[in-house]
Design goal:
Helix content is about 55%, strand content about 5%. The structure holds tryptophanyl-5'AMP.
Length: about 325
């Protein structure tokens, strides 16, 4: 059975983009794979996080992931900082990856912005840690949104260079699983920007914790253009906002943009937005309610996460110990 690994940062409330681009697929993969899902708190602190908020968001994110349908009994859900194997392997990968490779990472350029000199060193080597997350488990299938594609290509470059440098075939190649529908959910205020939990405008995104009123208001105010909806997907060319809303509808309804347009083509946005808001509320309200229920039980989420971490450690520890042996570190003597 192939092993699946994926992660999500507790750097804000998870969005509809996280759900449609990633978590929804995490849930689906559970049927036929052994899955590890990780709340990546080490990645989150590559940009400053308020400590109390980070703790709260780590728990809230774990609860939301369970509420979406990840089963922490049959699979493994844990927080990254509880499994030191990630950091041990990440250091080795910092020494395998080349600065030139990291310089090409578009997400670093976006996140660091104009003030590159002031970005944390952690933000720069972030993709090395991400490669370690996956390869510490010899995971080969990684469900992500399109924005992570370049990081996964780098992870394969790192695996290949490690194997070459240490004359081994130790690390497997990773296959990104990027679902074409909703691989890039865009901002509700600007169809050329990704919907993101760190966007300063709350109006730009739908949070998995939003109530009905907030969802309806955000979709009503979502940016559109003056034309009616086209009857075919080709008509969405050059209409980023319309394409985004149709894509969200299709992904939530489990259908295609073509069949959404077969129904709504020729109509204005007002009626379509009402239907989209209703569909979104129907899908997200049970997730928000279940998240709240899980968080109401004190200590429950922490117990789930630490139990997951113990199981994750049991898989990762021997793999990372073998990588350390290949590198030439002394091995702990048998007792
Ligand atoms: P993060 O926390 O930014 O996002 C978590 C997942 O959600 C996807 N995603 C989206 N998909 C579609 N449309 C959007 N607007 C959108 N926004 C986010 C992301 O592609 C991602 O799949 N570096 C990763 C976390 C990570 C990881 C890993 C992932 C750390 N280690 C190992 C896979 C494997 C990140 O920052 O994701």
């Amino acid at each position: 059975m192939q092993r699946v690994f994926s992660g999500i940062q507790p750097s804000g409330i998870p969005t509809l983009g996280n759900y449609l681009g990633a978590i929804r697929n995490w849930v689906a993969l559970q049927a036929a794979h052994e899955c590890l899902y990780c709340v990546v708190d080490l990645h989150a602190i590559t940009t400053w996080q308020d400590p109390a908020t980070l703790q709260r968001q780590t728990r809230e994110l774990a609860a939301a992931i369970i509420a979406c349908g990840v089963d922490p009994d049959r699979h493994i859900l844990f927080h990254q900082s509880a499994v030191p194997a990630h950091v041990r392997l990440a250091w080795i990968f910092n020494c395998v990856a080349r600065i030139g490779w990291l310089n090409r990472m578009t997400q670093f350029k976006d996140k660091a912005g104009k003030d590159r000199e002031n970005a944390s060193a952690g933000l720069y080597v972030y993709p090395d840690l991400m490669a370690a997350d996956i390869l510490a488990y010899h995971a080969t299938r990684v469900p992500v949104g399109d924005d992570q594609r370049q990081h996964l290509e780098l992870a394969n470059d790192i695996a290949q260079k490690f194997n070459h440098d240490y004359e081994s075939a130790f690390f497997p190649m990773i296959e990104p699983l990027i679902m074409p529908e909703a691989a890039r959910v865009m901002s509700l205020r600007d169809g050329t920007k990704k919907m993101s939990k760190s966007d300063p405008s709350d109006q730009s995104r739908i949070n998995l914790s939003d109530d009905t009123d907030a969802i309806v208001a955000k979709i009503r105010k979502a940016k559109t253009d003056a034309e009616p909806l086209p009857s075919e997907p080709q008509g969405l060319e050059g209409r980023a906002e319309a394409r985004n809303l149709v894509g969200i509808y299709a992904a939530l309804a489990g259908t295609t943009p073509a069949s959404v347009l077969a129904e709504y083509g020729g109509q204005g946005f007002a009626g379509f937005k009402i239907a989209l808001a209703e569909l979104t509320v129907t899908k997200l309200a049970p997730i928000a309610a279940e998240t709240k229920r899980l968080l109401a039980e004190p200590g429950h989420i922490d117990r789930v996460l630490f139990a997951g971490a113990a199981r994750a450690e049991a898989i990762a520890d021997p793999i990372v110990a073998e990588a350390e042996r290949l590198v030439g570190f002394l091995q702990r003597p048998a007792k």
